[in-house]
Description:
The protein is of the alpha+beta class. The protein has one domain. Helices cover 25% and strands 27% of the residues. Helix 1 runs antiparallel to helix 2. The radius of gyration is 20 Å and the shape is globular. 47% of the residues are buried. The mean pLDDT is 96. It binds 1,3-dihydroxyacetonephosphate (2 copies) and magnesium ion (MG) (4 copies).
Amino acid sequence: MKLTLSVIKADIGGYVGHSDSHPECLCEADNKLAKAKESGLLIDYHVTKCGDDLQLIMTHQKGENSPDVHEMAWDTFVACTNVAKRLKLYGAGQDLLTDAFSGNIKGMGPGAAEMEFEERTSEPVVIFMADKTSSGAWNMPLYKMFADPFNTIGLVIAENMHQGFNFEVHDVKESKKITFSTPEEIYDLLVFIGAPNRYPVKAVYTKSGEIAASSSTQKLAFLAGRYVGKDDPVCIVRCQGAFPAVGEVLEPFAQPYLVEGWMRGSHWGPIMPVGVADSLPTRFDGPPRVIAQGFQLSQGRLVGPRDFFADVSYDKAREKANEMAYMMRKHGPFEPHRLPLDEMEYTTMPQVSRKLESRFKPI
Ligand code: 13P
Ligand code: 13P
Ligand code: MG
Ligand code: MG
Ligand code: MG
Ligand code: MG
């Protein structure tokens, strides 16, 4: 059966500050999606959170960019925003950048990762969700999963993966896209995706054109033209068979790497893999978090989730991320902890420069 898996998310209000989601908001989302399932729009759904971001995981047969599914997700975020407003949660409706829905949720603030595929005999998927970081944060792990044999031994020893994968890369500044074929073009690919802020990996495909991974790439700052919080992206990855094994898909997160985000969206910090219950960015509003929820799909039913990063084998990664957090925090307001000027989400530079203009003398 042709199935669509949609993950649509938004920050509709934080509890307390930007650190968590309120259970009443999750409950409201559950009620709305239960109705959508009852009406037949959705086959199944799972509501969860990553930090202050509300996550709607949905299966249906309406295809990607379905106006019906997107509108229902938008209405759910609006209803949850009303709950957040009643509780006076922080930044109620933060990611809803427009007042009225207009056909597709893309460009309106919420992030979306979707894929349509023929459900296999067994269809394991992992959904990654992050808080306090930008779209593009999946570039390094997607590269490792689908192109790095030191991470994914299947690229070397599995006959159905040995030919490699295609990476669809977006230029978010110029609204262009390009596809790279790996392993032949990994050096060309890395020139671009090594700059994840500008060139996020949108999707990965097998060489025969099967969708393997899909990520959200919306840039809130571009959409809003001002700081409205971080993108806090999501990513869907299919596993096993012609795709990497579940363990190969999870492995990149055992080595925390630095991402943009953290306090006021303006710092580099380590991404820490955690279980859902620990997705509570706290220290300096962080460090950035990533959760991984695993499902087996059965005729569209979401059998799961398995909360992968709650596992003890990620204890060391958390410890390392905490060490990296201390190292970065020691720099205080200095680069390379603070982002360079042109990438900062907000800055007082124009006001301070204007105030001091007459005091600047030629040297
Ligand atoms: P099992 O024998 O437990 O199914 O493991 C197979 C495998 O390929 C693990 O990566
Ligand atoms: P969020 O995007 O998670 O709301 O983060 C905003 C922020 O500024 C944290 O300091
Ligand atoms: Mg927030
Ligand atoms: Mg957030
Ligand atoms: Mg955000
Ligand atoms: Mg087995």
